[in-house]
């Protein structure tokens, strides 16, 4: 194994510890926190891409588009349904205060760390969408679904790769609390399954971005009359 790849693996494994430390030293501004989070993700991803272009990784370049066209169309159909569901949720919250209250209660049960990263104003929402959602979708999918999954798959079995990469993905969200580690691991497994099925890193990147945008959008509409 190349020294650079070994350093990359250590960085990925130790990242949650650094994240926990930084979680205790937050900026007062959510916007500043968004920039910090994105910068950390891009630092790891930048090193990953540097290692790749240096030829230091034991994995092949990611497959961007599905090898079979109908899988791509299936993914597009899934995204359309997902967006339609988001619109339905927004309309439901605007028409029914009880639905909005239920959504707010669900966010509150998620803990302070979750509430702290979700937007409370339209300015924060725009930054959350353009910076956090896009950065998380791009960076985390390249790190976990492309690199970590394929690295373990090369040295073991795809099922082991799915489980271990998803668990590590969950641990990366430890700063949100253990319940979110489990939830994130499940989401990671679903995204990994989608990656295996479609054989496309682009599709899982878009899926991840849409999921994060969904969280931010629901949060801002739920909080509109409560901030």
Automatic annotation (TrEMBL):
GO biological process: CAAX-box protein maturation
Domain of life per record: Bacteria
Pfam families tied to this protein: Rce1-like (PF02517)
Domain CAAX prenyl protease 2/Lysostaphin resistance protein A-like: 125-213
Molecular-function GO term, any one: endopeptidase activity
Keywords: Membrane, Transmembrane, Transmembrane helix
Transmembrane parts of this sequence: 6-22, 34-53, 73-91, 125-148, 154-174
InterPro entries linked: Rce1/LyrA-like_dom
Protein name: CAAX prenyl protease 2/Lysostaphin resistance protein A-like domain-containing protein
UniProt lineage: Bacteria, Pseudomonadati, Pseudomonadota, Gammaproteobacteria, Alteromonadales
